[in-house]
Design a protein that fits this description.
- It is a single chain.
- The chain has eight helices and no strands.
- It has helices at about 5-15, 20-35, 40-50, 70-75, 75-95, 100-115, 120-140, 145-170.
- Helix 2 crosses helix 8 and helix 6 crosses helix 8 (about 145-170).
- It is globular.
- It starts with 6 loop residues before the first helix and ends in an 11-residue tail after the last helix.
């Protein structure tokens, strides 16, 4: 069920659209409701991510062999990683009006995942897609078409900065990576 995105898709994703002031406000308002339940939402996002894209588990020695969602939900390591993911997104959302801070935070995340963890950058696109799915399902009343459009731009912004960090460090795909 997993598929690798074609070059044209990646090219389109690398062009980030400007997020308007109104869209920033929508993102921040939506996120404030999501972040109030950050642990549960983060765990739900990671579990769905690993269920939908099981090859992503290869990067996590602590839970790469877990297939049972209840076991994943109880995993302290998965919960800690969910908190780090949600914390990073929170920092980006809180600093949408400070492009240098956003760039700095996402560059750190991207470089760590490229150099230390050897994670294929396409997984960030997949993870942010899952994040949008979970948010839209859990917060459907708040996730209006306007909010969806704003969050789609946010997703692109994250991926654009992450891939820029990968390029900056001279990323070469890890030879044993499975997408």
């Amino acid at each position: 069920m997993e598929k690798v995105q074609g070059e044209m898709e990646i090219e389109r994703w690398e062009r980030s659209e400007e997020i308007s002031e109104a869209e920033k406000k929508v993102i921040q308002e939506t996120w404030s409701r999501v972040y109030a339940n950050c642990e549960d939402v983060g765990v739900s996002v990671l579990i769905r991510f690993f269920v939908n894209f099981p090859s992503a588990k290869q990067y996590f020695s602590q839970f790469k062999h877990m297939d049972d969602t209840l076991e994943m939900e109880r995993s302290l390591q998965l919960r800690k990683h969910a908190q780090r993911v949600m914390g990073a997104i929170n920092t980006v959302v809180e600093n949408l009006n400070d492009p240098e801070k956003v760039s700095s935070v996402l560059a750190l995340v991207g470089k760590a995942h490229a150099l230390k963890h050897k994670v294929e950058p396409v997984y960030f696109k997949k993870l942010t897609g899952v994040l949008l799915e979970v948010i839209s399902e859990a917060y459907g009343n708040d996730f209006t078409p306007e909010a969806h459009g704003a969050w789609t731009k946010m997703r692109t912004l994250i991926y654009t900065h992450i891939t820029a960090a990968y390029k900056e460090v001279g990323w070469a795909p890890y030879p044993n990576a499975t997408l």
